[in-house]
């Protein structure tokens, strides 16, 4: 850990890495500025008060993920969620559509085609959701001085058209920001945008709680919440770094003109291969009832009200969706048949397991077992803190889901920064610790061995 921190401390010594980090921070700042630009025709104060009254349910949940953009009904009110929803739909279609399945096997060209379809789907979903949102808030109001004040000053067709254009354009711009961060910055752009919104809401949440409980701060409850959050952070860090090592033996390897004899390595399989995708996907799907309720779809209004309460119905459905997406996304990113085929081509095998079909079945068996553990961990860490917060009557709006996203994205970004540092230079960056860094990447460490395979 100390070697890693010492390595990361030298990020400013590499011009390319420095530019990438500053570029990422600049685009995140642009996103945060847009959060405070409201959609025309909306009373921002009334909207903020309305969203604040719904903080325990799906409305407050969406507002948290958008970094307060929904509370301001800003041009980024839909955030990056339409893009995520479009990605989910295409991935589901890829399991039943032979054409999309073939695109995934076409390499870079196929990936670009799928990304293009995802962009088109994002625009369509953003237009659909923005219209539903406009229709929904037209009928909402807040009480002030014994009278009801509407959120929209002049409802009607003009407001709906303006909202569709504004929010759809804002979503397209946020999608572009995420892609630029991924390609020209550091880290995953989509995840960093969501994390920036979550982190920006933590200070205001803490300050709001202090103001509301100025006369009765309940220090024991606050201490309990602090201990719970620290425990969650430790658990997330432990599981996100957890690996199941499968031993691999290379019968023979040729590097250049040299031929090496049998060598041992490991294939590292993460306990949580899906990362932060399951809670993000699950929260995105939970927005659909509210969207469909805006179009007066039968039953959707009642379902949205059930989810809006934030009680056991919401938590149960949220945990079930997280578990589903853990298995679903792991099945997409990790194909045992392809892994077994690659090992066979490299003349490598798992001791006691025949190459080919048996290797694929063994890897699939191991993946299914560790994914069960990973799904339980992700679902528990996302649901349990909010349940405990309700029991002690302390609103933990930045609890389990936000912790796993913030910690997971932070670890992934740190690994990418470290990868850039190790890729550029070993000497002059680590000083006396050069041998330790080299050992971490290529020596006895499991990640180094897995990467070497």
Work out the strand percent. 5-15%
Query: In this structure, how is the largest beta sheet organized?
Result: 3 strands, antiparallel
| Low-confidence blocks of residues | 427-453
- Under the CATH scheme, which architecture of the largest domain would be assigned? Orthogonal Bundle
Number of domains: 2
The overall strand count is: 7
Classified by CATH, the class of the largest domain is: Mainly Alpha
Tally of DSSP helical segments: 20
Rough outline: globular
Order of strands in the sheet with the most strands?
6-3-7
CATH topology of the largest domain: Preprotein translocase SecY subunit
Per-chain topology:
Elements: H1 2-8, H2 15-34, H3 44-53, H4 58-65, H5 69-72, H6 81-94, H7 98-104, H8 108-138, E1 141-144, E2 147-150, H9 157-184, H10 189-212, H11 219-240, E3 243-250, E4 253-255, E5 258-260, E6 263-270, H12 277-285, H13 288-293, H14 300-308, H15 312-333, H16 336-345, E7 348-349, H17 357-391, H18 400-424, H19 434-442, H20 446-452
Antiparallel strand pairs: 1-2, 3-6, 3-7, 4-5
Helix pairs in contact: 2-9, 2-10, 6-8, 6-12, 7-8, 8-9, 9-10, 10-18, 11-17, 11-18, 12-15, 15-17, 16-17, 17-18, 19-20
Overview of this protein structure:
This protein folds into two domains: 1-217, SecY subunit domain (Preprotein translocase SecY subunit, Orthogonal Bundle), CATH 1.10.3370.10; 219-453, Orthogonal Bundle (Preprotein translocase SecY subunit). The radius of gyration is 24 Å and the shape is globular. It is built from 20 helices and seven strands. The protein is mostly helical and 453 residues long. The chain has helices at residues 2-8, 15-34, 44-53, 58-65, 69-72, 81-94, 98-104, 108-138, 157-184, 189-212, 219-240, 277-285, 288-293, 300-308, 312-333, 336-345, 357-391, 400-424, 434-442, 446-452, and strands spanning 141-144, 147-150, 243-250, 253-255, 258-260, 263-270, 348-349. 35% of the residues are buried. β1 (141-144) and β2 form a beta hairpin. α7 (98-104) crosses α8 (108-138) and α19 crosses α20 (446-452). The strands form three sheets. It has a three-stranded antiparallel β-sheet with strand order 6-3-7. The chain has a two-stranded antiparallel ribbon with strand order 1-2. Helix content is 68%, strand content 7%.
